[in-house]
What we know:
The protein is about 70% helix and about 0% strand. Helix 3 packs across helix 7. The mean pLDDT is about 80. With about 120 residues, the protein is mostly helical. It is elongated and about 55 Å long.
Amino acid sequence: MYSLIAPANFLSLIGPADVLLGLSLPVGETVLLSIAVGLLSFGLLALIPIPPLDGFGILYNAMRQPGPSMQWMRLWFEEKNVGVLILLICSLFPFGGPFLLRIVNALGLVFVRVWG
């Protein structure tokens, strides 16, 4: 929808991180692009196999018989909330920028280019 509405399509020049950090476009284009890229980023972030996210549940259930090491990982990362701590560190402490933003930017770049 954005490529139909926007006269100058900037999607071939920007990535999801640029949209999430803020762009200076007209208001309608910015709102539409922010909603689309925000939903895409949340969906891609949920599929990363870090234990508090959905990707770990998919990975865990895909295994026929999870071994003791996988059970140990699930105990520490899900039940004792170490996975949440890892997510907070990756999103709050910048390593030249938030690390999770780099992951989402790398995964979402393909989709943003296809939209453009």
